[in-house]
Structures are given as structure tokens and as C-alpha cells.
Design a protein that fits this description.
Elements (H helix, E strand, L loop, with lengths): L4 H16 L3 H4 L3 H10 L7 E8 L9 E3 L2 H10 L21 H7 E3 L10 E4 L6 H6 L3 E8 L7 H4 L12 H10 L10 H11 L13 E3 L15 E2 L21 H14 L5 H20 L21 H19 L4 E8 L15 H18 L11 E7 L18 E7 L7 E2 L28 E2 H12 L3 H7 L15
Parallel strand pairs: 1-8, 1-9, 5-11, 5-12, 6-7, 6-8
Antiparallel strand pairs: 2-4, 3-4, 5-10, 9-10
Length: 498
Amino acid sequence: MSITRKTRRDFLRNLCTLAASGSAAALIPQLRMMGTALASTSAFADYKALVCVYLAGGNDSWNMVVPFDTTRFNTYTTSRSGTYNATTNPGGLGLALPTTSAQIAAQKIIDGNDASSSTNQYFLHPSMPEMTPLFAQHKLAFLVNAGTLVKPIDMNAYKTAANRPPQLFSHSDQTNQWHQGSTSSTDVSGWGGRCAENLDGLGANLSSNPKIPLAISIAGSNRYEIGHSTVPYQMSSGGLTSLNGVCNPSCTGVTTNSARDAALNDLLGATYASDFAGEYNKVFNSARSLYTKIGPNVPPASTAYVPANTWPANNSLANQLKTVATMINLSKTQGYASRQIYFVQIGGFDLHSGFNTGNGNHAQLLQLVSQALNAFWTALGPTYLNLQNNVTVFTMSDFARTLQSNGAGSDHAWGSVQMVLGGAVQGGKLYSGGDLISGFPNQALNAPNNFSRGQMIPGIGVEQYAATLAQWMGVSATDCLTMFPNLANFTTRNIGFV
């Protein structure tokens, strides 16, 4: 468990009391802890932000990265009910193999973790051409076959119910487990929130009150950023909305607005007997104080901190990431925080039908994601914010989907492919190692660790994925064992992609 500010103060106060009372015998065993306690009271010297991009509905991620070699590609195509063709095979979910030089240049990648020249080649979905050069530049990595796990298991271990995560294939339950970073039902806090609380205790906030919260959501309420005692600060991609008819943030002279403002401040300064009223007052007061600090610096009041790169139009995810980039720029420039955790979301991935047809099909969704991530990466680049090394973006989703088609789409599955993007990312690689299941999985239906419709048993647990990101932010390996209850069940506790 991390040492919070309160426990550090108590520790130092008790230490001084012991010294004053001459209790040397009690004091000496604690001296080795003095350096840790004092060091922990200092803020981080650098700035880092973690950005979660949630693909809601269960992304069919096995179409994001596809084997290029003939043998594995043929297995993939067979399991995906053939290559899609609107006339001859409308139910097929498989992608066509890139064959022209232009297609190969736009889609082909080589896995830097695999020394074999025959099995280290893959291609990306044709709707994601922006990701190919980022992978080649070693800024983008793919986490292959990740999912919710209690412990490492194979097909034999799966048969014992205690080894399986609860409520597999359920949207709500699997979303909660990804957000919690745990399959436990006893701690329903989110791992982003727990991470923020841990980092706050280590001095991740630099500002005086009102502090800029470490956890900020641009996509509304979410479990991921809820800690044991904190909730995320919520913004919209349109910025902050001020109160009407009062002073924002201050008044000059005596006006109707100033009178209303004075009355509102009297209400906010009152003491309330009701816990509900008191808590509401606390939240409202905090939100208004934060508006005073943030509001004048972000849209619609100001564009001073908005990166000036071009952002794709009609792209809700890009709009959210533009707000994240603005807040990162503001927070870093003004020294408001040294660590921040953001949450954005794009939905529509629950494609039981319309996988290849209609508005919002899978190709269109991946195009939105790819273009939004590329614009965000450009905003962080040296021409604009120069913060690419300070920010790591990662995806999560409920689960992958069945390899086998249901005739018009795909159904709920398990192990998935996730993306991690950032200047600190050890990119250009596919990370697929697991304690019991490793390597790019066999995609044949009914393969040893693949169910009859192509639901993969994950090789990498959510806890391993999350703990790797948390440690990059500054959470200790020891604290990660407390933060992620199942992490101790895994031999590899840091996957090493960042």
C-alpha cells in the first residue's frame, strides 16, 4: 500500500515525538524508512499523462492485425467464414490479403519480437493506414490476446469454474472487469482511479487548491476513474459551460450578477446538517472553483491552449482527444499537475449485424479511431506541444468477437488485441507472451485454446496490462500487487511494452 500524505505526516510527527522522548530503541528501526517518507513528499520532477481510449461494445480486434504468411492467413480466412464479398460471400468477415505494392506499403508490418522471417509478418486493417508508419517508427505496439483472467489458464484449467472470470461474454460485466483491472466483485473501484489516488499520495499534483484532478473524463461517468474516495472530473469535448447570471470568475462593481454571485457564495459557504446537502455543496463548490482555474483557458472562453494541428471533422473521438490535448497543454504549461489520467470513449462496436455494410460498420469505426489517434499524436509532436514522450495512449474494449460469422456480424468472445501508442512505448512489436499461452494464437476453430466459434482464451490478463501502464506512471511494483489483486497469480507482472 502506498504511503499517503496523511500517513507520512503521522509518521514524521511520531518520529519526532519518539526522538524527543529519548525512545532510541523504538526510533532506530524506523530510521531506514526516513528517506522513503521524505522522498515521497516531493512531487514528480517530470510530467506524464495516461489516456484510455475505450472501444465500447466489444471491438472485433482480430481484424486489426492479421497474419500475412500463407498458412496462417488461410487459417484466419477459414475461421472468419471466408473473405467478405458483397455479391459472392456477404457473410464473410475476413479481410483480403494485400497484394499490390500500394496495399502492402499501407498495411504490412513486421513484428520486432519475432526473429523468424516466415511468421513475423502481419498486415493492418486497410482502414488504419495512419497506424502503419507509427508501428514502423516504433511508437505503436499491439498487445495480442489480452483479456480478463483470474490466473493464467489453458483449456484444461478452464473446465474448473473457479479458474474463470465471472460472467464471461457479458457486456456490462466484462466492461466492469476491464475498468476495475480485476475480476473481483469485492473492490468495484476502477484501476485508473486507484492509480490516481496512489500517485496523488506521492505528490503528483503540483498546484495549490483548487487542485486539478488527476483523473479527468471527456466521456461522462465511468468506473475506470472512480477510486476508493475520489471521482473523476467530467468535461465535454466542447469545453466548460459557465453559470448564467453570476460572475465567472469575478465581478467588477455592483450589478445584478454580483448580487446573485454574493447570494450563491453565501449558500456555498453555509454548513448543512444533511450529509446529502453537505456533499452536494462540496462537489458544487469544488466544480465552481475548478471552473475559475480552468474555464478561462479552454473553449469556448479561449483557444490559447488548443493545439493548432488539423483535426478530422465529424469524428467524436477526435473531438474528445482534442480536449485532452488542450488540457494536457494547459496542465503542463501552468504546472497544475505532474501526473494525469484521461478517459475517452467511442461506441458502436457491438456489431452482431452490419459488420461490413451500412453506416457505422467496422471499417468506418476503425477509420475514426485511426484518424483520431493520428491527429492526437500529431498534436503531441514537436511542431505543436512537443509532449510525445510524456503521454501514453492505450485502448480497452469489452472483449473481442467470434472469429466465425453469424451471417451478418460477429458475436461476443474473449481474448482481444489492444493498441498502445506513445513516445515511451517500445513499439514496432506484438506483445503476446503469457504464462501458459504465448505467441500469436492459433486461429483455427477448436484449436487447443480456442473455442468452437473462435473465442480465444487470453494469454495476457488485464492486470498485467494495467500494471505495466501504472508502473510507467510511477506506481511501484509493490503497490501494483495491492492495486491489482490477481497480479500475484502471474509470473510476468510487467509486460515491458513501455
